[in-house]
Amino acid sequence: MRQLTLQITDKKYPLFIELIKSLDFVKKIEEEPTKEEILANLTESIKQVNKIKKVN
After folding, report:
1. pLDDT, the chain, mean
2. With 80 as the cut, is the pLDDT of residue 48 above it?
3. Which positions ≥6 away from 8 have C-beta within 8 Å?
4. Of the candidates 20, 46, 39, the residue with the CA atom closest to the CA atom of residue 31
5. This prediction's pTM
6. Does an H or E element contain 21, and which?
7. Which of 9, 13, 22, 53 is the most buried (most CB within 10 A)?
8. Exposure on the CB side of residue 44, measured as CA atoms within 13 A
9. Is residue 50 helix, strand or coil?
10. Residue 2: what pLDDT?
11. Residue 3 confidence (pLDDT)
């Protein structure tokens, strides 16, 4: 099995994702997280660290 990394413009990205999802030989599609998802994950991580600090 091989892995391929591509750079695609934001404008063409949705079309490309739909295209590769339609290919039966593509096994896994990992989309990069959005800025909002990254910030939400960071916020959650900070909350968890603060909880741990309170316990210790």
Report:
1. 89
2. yes
3. 16
4. 20
5. 0.48
6. helix 13-21
7. 13
8. 6
9. helix
10. 81
11. 78
